[in-house]
Amino acid sequence: MTRAPFNADDDDAGAPARNELACEASGCPNRWTSRVDAGNGIGLRRLCHAHSVAPPRLWSLITDAQLRAAADLPPELQREPVDAEAVAHEKARLATLRAELTARPTPAARAWAIELRERERQGKTLTKPQRSAWREVLGEASAQ
Q1: How far apart are CA 57 and CA 69, in angstroms?
Q2: Which of 37, 51, 76, 105 is the most buried (most CB within 10 A)?
Q3: What are 18-57's pLDDT values in tens digits?
Q4: Would you say the pTM of this structure is higher than 0.70?
Q5: Angle 111-121/128-138 helices, nearest 10 degrees?
Q6: Residue among 50, 43, 8, 13 nearest 29 (CA)
Q7: Distance from C-alpha of 117 to C-alpha of 126, rounded to nearest angstrom
């Protein structure tokens, strides 16, 4: 890993946006302080001090430590990193459960639709949205 020499002409001018100030290590909450050639063929990268002195293979561990430090929580309250595969599995399971629960409305949940159907059969006037809503919930075809 080699450090790039300072070049005043290459320095950022003006007030850069937040993403221009951020360390380029994935997920790092810190501002960059050094331009470093990480030796991975990408060229110069803007890194915080913690990432600039470590090899790229350790960057994820450093980022986790930086995020915990940024949270300013006591160690017993800090959460361990979440497994992305487990989160995706849980989201899929919840989506399946939601689909099952919404596909079969309970009789109490359909009471309003039954009441609107009865009002229409009694000859009372309903709006188009009311008619289409009760028919959709009760699964009856439109009589248009």
Answers
A1: 20
A2: 51
A3: 567 778 777 887 777 777 776 666 677 888 888 788 888 8
A4: no
A5: 120
A6: 50
A7: 9
Q: What is the DSSP string of the chain?
A: -EEPPP-GGGS--S---HHHHB-SSTT--SBP-EEEE-SSSS-EEEE-HHHHTS-GGGHHHHHHHHHHHHHT--GGGPPPPPPHHHHHHHHHHHHHHHHHHHHS--TTTTHHHHHHHHHHHTT----HHHHHHHHHHHTPPP--
Got the DSSP string for 42-76? Answer: S-EEEE-HHHHTS-GGGHHHHHHHHHHHHHT--GG
Question: Could you give the CA distance from residue 69 to residue 9 in angstroms, rounded to a whole number?
Answer: 34
